């Protein structure tokens, strides 16, 4: 291979065995399955609280000209938000610990595993865990009568895309962190995303500030899950999908490159 | 002569403006126990990281098993074992899980991982602690687990960066015994150390590194013979007076070195030199005659002690 | 709390303060910015949906949704602060940095550490609450003298979560329990504790469960102050109940800490 080709496509950046990293996590979480299971309850509590407490106070909300009860409005948003939260949780604090303190990746890179395997393994794990929560949440939604048709199953791949996007961003961001105190930045950024991505009230409420909301990747995720749940498809959804895909790919490339420079200096 | 396992020619590693490794030439033959000796910051660890294919050389050529680490990193790493300076054990896994998960990183089958795990736990004398959490192990046990883990892929080349730093004397001897067994099994050992006794115990051949360069090379014995005298007389005078006594010692033995806490006199016959000291009317607070060691070689080569 | 605290406890509080000086900016940010974001997102945003829904205002006792949520946010912020500061930091001071072992060899003893911690939480909650209250006072909708006693109530609730959780943390060997406390005590209370809507919206069983911890009692009292409808006898009852939580937590925590530090 010529030097030019090597620079663009270095052999160490090839993904060969990311599943090995996932095997490691399964071994760890076999003992801590209770922690994994308990992660499912947070979005569930939010949903039940919104349904019982705010449902009758708010009444109906209009989505695309259709009047829907408040819990049916909030549920898809909470599903998307929990995909984001799970992905961020698995790709920031946990990764920081393994990268800087436990030095798990240093150990992995002494084997045939490469930096791209590590990055993809971590992001893959975040996705798997996120899908488990998403399936659980969808079952609860169906049980509460908040789903409209079989189209709601499309919410699962959409949550995977949301998870991929945030896990890649989280992982890439974590490689820049100096220590635990930087985790506060993550929490401070997550909260406005959670609250202001047309999650709890429609984007129309923002008036001329709506464009700010549209910067939020979660907003696009919420719009997609809501569309899936309503079974209403439109061309505009392609734009939401494209936004998330482009962001994911960019963050993935950055993440793999950063691991390479951090661990193989 | 067979193809060397490691062949480095004019190897350079720079971090920004700082040159950690400054053009070294090294060849390691199969079955050898080879050591990099030098103080902290001499460039040993940077060299080791390049050999273990996790750090790209800035300049020069490096071949391991005849392969280039830049293009064949994964292939090379599949055949080497690495024991890093600081343990990178997985504290979320048990002792035996550490071994078999690591084996999976090498694409070994589950059955193979379990078989080797059993063997290696025995080798590292950790069979009874197989289910323990890593955090509960002593420093020596963690080190032995690190070595066991590095052997999971049955490597033909084992890299050990400061294998016994921070261990108590008993734990070090247990570890040396294990490494000696590996050497007898034909595993090529490459280690860094700043302990003279370790280098003398384990290495067939070593290079002395200082400020990124190789300043001497040979077997421990030949280095001592070449650069030091047979014996060394260590004298301690009242605090703060070493320098003034150093003048009075002039001409004694082949060379003198005044250190902050003692004065060293290099002489083939230490006892004779001590008698001469007494004849010149000096009364040191303590005097000791010992055989010369690699510590002396390093001091004579660089003018500094390894502890600096 | 100050009346209960010994001079020794104040020295422990001073020790906390010294350690905190380096970190206060980020902490103030999270304990000020987070409630403000919730106020904006839920209070104003969801509030716009609630207020245009006829009939909701009477359910809320005749006030706008923002005015209804404000005391809830003050008190839940103090709850999170009191709980969080009494989990990992306590374990850290016992197991990792071992700060309490350092104190244990001085004339100070377990009671001083517990009361010092309580005073520290009261102080932190009050500062965080005051920052939010000042921001609220800038807007006519939320401006009220009642904010001042409401901040004091929030501080009290912060301590009522701190001492019982400290009692648990002192006896914990691993930090696994903390995720459980967070997920199954603090977050459910945040959502079902009467901060964002009246408890009467919930099923009776849930209402009773929500009334056991100190949060709801604090929210009701604080809301009385900020909306200007104070029922004095009920207020006294609620505050007594909150104080019982503080005292019970402090007693158990002291006993356990003493056993840990002087085995």
Can you put this structure into words, describing what you see?
Chain A is mainly alpha-helical and 265 residues long. Helix content of chain A is 71%, strand content 3%. Chain A has one domain. In chain A, helix 12 (217-230) packs across helix 13 (236-263). The two termini of chain A are 22 Å apart. Chain B has 308 residues and is an alpha/beta fold. Chain B folds into 2 domains: 6-221, Rossmann fold (3-Layer(aba) Sandwich); 225-302, 2-Layer Sandwich (Alpha-Beta Plaits). In chain B, 36% of the residues lie in helices and 26% in strands. Chain B contains 11 helices and 13 strands. In chain B, helix 3 packs across helix 4 and helix 8 packs across helix 11 (294-302). The two termini of chain B are 39 Å apart. Chain C is an all-alpha fold and 263 residues long. Chain C has one domain. In chain C, helix 4 packs antiparallel against helix 11 (214-227), helix 7 packs across helix 12 (232-261) and helix 8 runs antiparallel to helix 11 (214-227). The two termini of chain C are 28 Å apart. Chains in contact: A-B, A-C. Chain A binds chain B through residues 1, 6, 11-12, 16-17, 20, 23-24, 27-28, 102-104, 106-114, 263-265, and chain B through 15, 52, 54-56, 70-75, 77-78, 82, 84, 86, 88-93, 97, 101-102, 104-107, 149-150, 153.
Order of helices and strands of chain B: EEEHEHEHHHEHEHEEHEHEEHEH
**Helix coverage percent of residues of chain B?**
25-40%
The number of E-state strands of chain C comes to 0
Distance between the termini of chain B: 39 Å
Mind telling me the C-alpha Rg of chain C?
A: 19 Å
Q: From the structure provided, what is the oligomeric state, counting identical versus distinct chains?
A: heterotrimer
* pLDDT averaged over residues of chain B: 88
The number of distinct helices of chain B, counting runs of at least 4 residues, comes to 11
Number of DSSP strand runs of chain B: 13
Overall mean confidence score, pLDDT of chain C: 88
Low-confidence stretches of chain C: 1-5
Fraction of residues in β-strands of chain C: under 5%
Number of helices of chain C: 12
Distance between the termini of chain C: 28 Å
Summarize the amount of helix of chain C as a percent range: over 70%
Overall form of chain B: globular
* Low-pLDDT residue spans of chain B: none
CATH architecture of the largest domain in chain B: 3-Layer(aba) Sandwich
Number of domains of chain B: 2
């Amino acid at each position: 291979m010529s030097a030019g080709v090597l620079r663009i496509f270095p052999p160490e950046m090839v993904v060969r065995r990311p599943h090995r990293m996932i095997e490691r996590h399964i071994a760890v979480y076999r003992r801590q399955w209770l922690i994994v299971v308990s992660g499912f309850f947070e979005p569930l509590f939010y949903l039940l609280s919104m349904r019982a407490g705010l449902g009758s106070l708010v009444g109906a909300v209009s989505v695309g000209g259709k009047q829907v009860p408040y819990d049916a409005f909030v549920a898809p948003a909470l599903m998307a938000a929990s995909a984001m939260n799970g992905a961020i949780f698995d790709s920031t604090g946990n990764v920081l610990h393994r990268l800087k303190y436990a030095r798990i990746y240093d150990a992995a890179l002494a084997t045939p595993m490469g930096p791209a395997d590590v990055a993809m393994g971590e992001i893959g794990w975040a996705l798997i865990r996120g899908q488990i929560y998403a399936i659980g949440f969808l079952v609860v939604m169906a049980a509460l009568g908040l789903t409209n048709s079989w189209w709601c199953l499309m919410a699962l791949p959409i949550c995977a895309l949301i998870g991929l996007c945030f896990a890649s961003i989280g992982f890439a961001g974590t490689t820049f962190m100096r220590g635990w105190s930087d985790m506060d930045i993550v929490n401070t950024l997550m909260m406005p995303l959670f609250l202001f991505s047309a999650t709890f009230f429609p984007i129309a409420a923002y008036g001329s500030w709506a464009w700010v909301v549209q910067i939020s990747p979660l907003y696009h995720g919420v719009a997609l899950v809501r569309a899936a749940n309503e079974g209403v498809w439109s061309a505009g959804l392609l734009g939401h999908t494209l936004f998330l895909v482009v962001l994911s790919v960019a963050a993935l490339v950055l993440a793999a490159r950063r691991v390479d420079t951090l661990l193989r200096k | 002569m067979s193809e060397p396992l490691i062949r480095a020619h004019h190897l350079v590693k720079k971090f920004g403006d700082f040159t950690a490794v400054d053009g070294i030439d090294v060849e390691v033959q199969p079955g050898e126990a080879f050591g990099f000796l030098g103080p902290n910051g001499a460039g040993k660890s940077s060299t080791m990281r390049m050999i273990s294919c996790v750090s790209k050389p800035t300049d020069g050529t490096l071949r391991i098993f005849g392969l280039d680490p830049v293009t064949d990193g994964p292939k090379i790493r599949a055949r080497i074992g690495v024991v890093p300076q600081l343990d990178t054990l997985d504290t979320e896994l048990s002792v035996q899980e550490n071994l078999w998960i690591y084996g999976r990183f090498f694409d070994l089958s589950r059955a193979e991982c379990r078989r080797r795990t059993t063997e290696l736990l025995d080798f590292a004398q950790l069979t009874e602690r197989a289910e323990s959490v890593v955090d509960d192990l002593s420093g020596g046990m963690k080190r032995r687990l690190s070595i066991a883990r590095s052997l999971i892929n049955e490597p033909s080349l084992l890299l050990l960066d400061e294998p016994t730093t921070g261990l108590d004397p008993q734990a070090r001897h247990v570890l040396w015994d294990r490494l000696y067994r590996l050497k007898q099994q034909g595993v090529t050992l490459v280690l860094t150390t700043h302990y003279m006794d370790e280098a003398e115990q384990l290495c067939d051949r070593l290079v002395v590194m200082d400020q990124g360069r190789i300043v001497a090379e040979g077997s421990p014995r030949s280095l001592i013979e070449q650069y030091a005298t047979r014996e060394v007389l260590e004298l301690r005078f009242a605090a703060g007076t070493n320098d003034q006594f150093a003048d009075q010692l002039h001409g004694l033995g082949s060379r003198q070195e005044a250190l902050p806490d003692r004065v060293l006199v290099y002489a083939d016959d230490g006892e004779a030199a001590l008698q001469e000291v007494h004849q010149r009317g000096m009364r040191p607070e303590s005097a000791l005659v010992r055989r010369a060691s690699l510590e002396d070689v390093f001091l004579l080569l660089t003018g500094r002690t390894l502890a600096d | 709390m100050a009346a209960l605290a010994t001079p020794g406890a104040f020295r422990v509080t001073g020790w906390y303060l010294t350690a905190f000086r380096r970190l206060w900016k980020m902490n103030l940010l999270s304990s000020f910015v987070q409630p403000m974001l919730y106020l904006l997102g839920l209070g104003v945003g969801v509030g716009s949906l609630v207020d245009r829904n006829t009939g909701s205002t009477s359910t809320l006792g005749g006030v706008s949704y923002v005015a209804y949520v404000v005391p809830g946010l003050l008190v839940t912020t103090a709850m999170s602060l009191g709980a969080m500061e009494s989990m990992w930091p306590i374990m850290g001071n016992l197991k990792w940095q071992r700060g309490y072992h350092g104190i244990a060899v001085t004339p100070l003893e377990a009671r001083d550490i517990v009361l010092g911690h309580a005073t520290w939480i009261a102080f932190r909650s009050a500062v965080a609450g005051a920052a939010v209250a000042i921001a609220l006072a800038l807007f006519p909708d939320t401006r009220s003298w009642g904010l001042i006693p409401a901040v004091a109530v929030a501080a009290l609730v912060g301590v009522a979560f701190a001492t019982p959780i400290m009692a648990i943390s002192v006896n914990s060997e691993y930090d696994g329990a903390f995720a459980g406390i967070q997920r199954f005590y603090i977050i459910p209370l945040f959502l079902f504790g009467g901060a964002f809507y009246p408890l009467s919206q919930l099923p009776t069983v849930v209402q009773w469960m929500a009334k056991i911890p100190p949060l709801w009692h604090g929210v009701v009292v604080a809301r009385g102050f900020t909306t200007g409808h104070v029922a004095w006898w009920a207020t006294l009852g609620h505050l007594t109940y909150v104080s019982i939580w503080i005292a019970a937590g402090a007693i158990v925590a002291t006993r356990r800490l003493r056993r840990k530090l002087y085995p």
